[in-house]
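User: Hi! I have a protein structure encoded as tokens and I'd like to know what sequence might fold into it. I'm fairly new to this, so please keep things simple.
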């Protein structure tokens, strides 16, 4: 798209003042100076017409990719200033300056405001720099300190990543087993666990913890991580090599002797942070939904102090545990500098980390360009049903319609007239994601059989209906990631309670969704939905423990920016209070 704009500018240069003057005073002109006066308005009109044409062409091109360049095109093509002298006399950039400004704007968008590092091989991961063509520009500012820390972390990942001399040395020390000293390269190993939405949220949580503790993040390649996501760090890999010497790490679980919680429970780790016997070379962190009170001590200040002494940490989780990191005193100042706006942690880290591979990007772009790109408005509806039966269920369909009609996300239908005429027909495309096709078919048929009251043209699309979740299948996961990404490109979104699939789409989009409450007793809730208070995911299984008083407490009331979730009364989520 940026090349289209620049090519139009190159091929349609405005006439220079010198050319106008030469034409007016050409030898043999019968009128002399009067001829110059007659030609000048025509030249001005031609210039204005050319400028308007360029503006319309550039705007149309930008609109096809979400309009993220339209603001830059209006500014640079029309010139600066708002005086009454007309566009020709306004101070605007010359051709070369304009091209530079457009190119600079494109580069900033490609790098998502500096969030991404330049220099990757574009062909190996097309989505990394092409995503700006499909996604609206985020309204959420990125702190300069976050950008600084990301660049520093990239240096650390490159220095200590797999197959480097530093990594080889660290592996040899790990094999030795005991009393390994913490050095320049310390590691956090993420274990692949649970469904795709959970995995994405836990990788983001692990990455933030790695930044806070200056650890290299290595991810387990199980469940097709490399088939789904490109490498996020330049000139290195985040994939844990297959010859990692702790071969049993995938089998660690609650109660494993190597777990931090179990070692605290058995007093192998003393309250002062010292170890009973030799200090281990690694510890296992069990932060999954079934973790016990000893595992939850991970979120206490004193635990963080002795974990700093361990060079290798192995993490297994299915939770977005970021909210509880904000409650650890030693990290609070750093987190505030990283995220002055508290409710954009996943939004920024998710766009930094998760770039679909070329195969998945093909699924995304082909579907988007075929069915979604040309609509005036895009509505995404994510339907997740937590029921032992497959459905479809009437109460779920009722809830979806109640929410979308009540909040005016979908127009009412007219069951009395066969055709509704309107002079201003708008098109709306609705993307539905669900394991079941029944909801899509019934809503689509309703709008096919009856016109809308507003005269809007509504089309419905559902990319897949897998019937049941199968997180171990490669293509199932690829389609799931493609649908998460497609949902996140919606202008407005409706998501389901408790669904990590919906949390990820919401976080990537940067827009507050309408959240449908979880039905009880197969009855549609009233109200059916509400708009979320922040775009952050919910931590489903947080600890309820005050580390200072060593007593149980409501951790959703300790600080203003950590509150209980809309869809899960005991969950925690980050909100921005403006403080």
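Assistant: Happy to help. Inverse folding works backwards from shape to sequence: for each of the 579 positions I chose a residue that suits the local structure. Here it is:
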């Amino acid at each position: 798209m940026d090349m289209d704009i620049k090519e139009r500018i190159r091929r349609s240069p405005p006439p220079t003042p010198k050319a106008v003057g030469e034409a007016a005073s050409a030898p043999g002109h019968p009128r002399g100076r009067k001829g110059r006066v007659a030609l000048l308005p025509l030249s001005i009109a031609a210039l204005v017409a050319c400028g308007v044409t360029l503006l319309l062409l550039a705007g149309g091109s930008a609109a096809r990719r979400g309009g993220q360049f339209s603001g830059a095109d209006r500014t640079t093509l029309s010139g600066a200033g708002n005086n009454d002298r007309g566009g020709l006399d306004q101070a605007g950039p010359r051709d070369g300056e304009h091209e530079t400004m457009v190119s600079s704007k494109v580069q900033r968008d490609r790098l998502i405001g500096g969030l991404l590092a330049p220099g990757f091989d574009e062909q190996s991961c097309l989505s990394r720099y092409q995503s700006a063509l499909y996604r609206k520009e985020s309204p959420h500012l990125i702190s300069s300190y976050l950008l600084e820390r990301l660049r520093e972390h990239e240096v650390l990942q490159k220095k200590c990543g797999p197959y480097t001399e530093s990594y080889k040395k660290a592996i040899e020390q790990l094999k030795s087993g005991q009393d390994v000293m913490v050095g320049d390269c310390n590691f956090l190993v993420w274990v692949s666990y649970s469904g795709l939405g959970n995995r994405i949220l836990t990788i983001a949580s692990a990455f933030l913890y790695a930044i806070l503790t200056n650890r290299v993040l290595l991810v387990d390649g199980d469940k097709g991580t490399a088939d789904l996501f490109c490498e996020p760090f330049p000139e290195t890999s985040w994939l844990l090599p297959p010859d990692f010497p702790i071969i049993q790490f995938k089998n660690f679980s609650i109660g494993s002797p190597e777990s931090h919680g179990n070692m605290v429970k058995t007093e192998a780790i003393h309250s002062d942070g010292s170890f009973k016997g030799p200090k281990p070379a690694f510890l296992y962190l069990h932060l999954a939904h079934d973790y016990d009170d000893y595992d939850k001590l991970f979120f206490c200040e004193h635990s963080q102090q002795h974990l700093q002494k361990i060079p290798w940490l192995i993490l297994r989780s299915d939770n977005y545990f970021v909210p509880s990191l904000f409650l650890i005193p030693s990290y609070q100042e750093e987190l505030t500098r990283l995220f002055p706006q508290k409710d954009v942690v996943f939004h920024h880290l998710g766009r930094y980390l998760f770039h679909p591979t070329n195969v998945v990007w093909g699924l995304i772009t082909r579907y988007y360009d075929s069915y979604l790109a040309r609509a005036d408005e895009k509505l995404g509806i994510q339907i997740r049903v937590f029921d032992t039966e497959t459905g479809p269920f009437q109460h779920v369909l009722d809830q979806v319609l109640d929410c979308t009609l009540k909040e005016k996300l979908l127009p009412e239908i007219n069951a009395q007239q066969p055709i509704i005429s309107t002079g201003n027909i708008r098109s709306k495309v609705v993307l539905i994601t669900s394991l079941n096709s029944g909801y899509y078919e019934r809503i689509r048929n309703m709008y096919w059989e009856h016109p809308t009251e507003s005269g809007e043209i509504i089309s419905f699309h559902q990319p897949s209906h897998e019937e049941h979740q199968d997180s171990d299948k490669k293509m199932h996961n690829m389609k799931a990631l493609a649908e998460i990404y497609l949902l996140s490109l919606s202008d407005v979104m409706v998501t389901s309670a408790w669904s990590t699939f919906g949390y990820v789409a919401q976080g990537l989009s940067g827009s507050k969704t309408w959240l449908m409450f979880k039905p009880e007793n197969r009855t549609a809730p009233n109200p059916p939905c509400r708009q979320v208070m922040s775009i952050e995911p919910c931590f489903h299984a947080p600890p309820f423990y005050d580390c200072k008083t060593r007593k149980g407490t409501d951790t959703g009331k300790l600080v203003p920016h950590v509150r209980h979730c809309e869809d899960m009364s005991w969950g925690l989520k980050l909100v921005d209070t403006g403080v």
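A useful reference point when you look it over: The first strand starts at residue 187 and ends at 190. Feel free to ask if any position seems puzzling.
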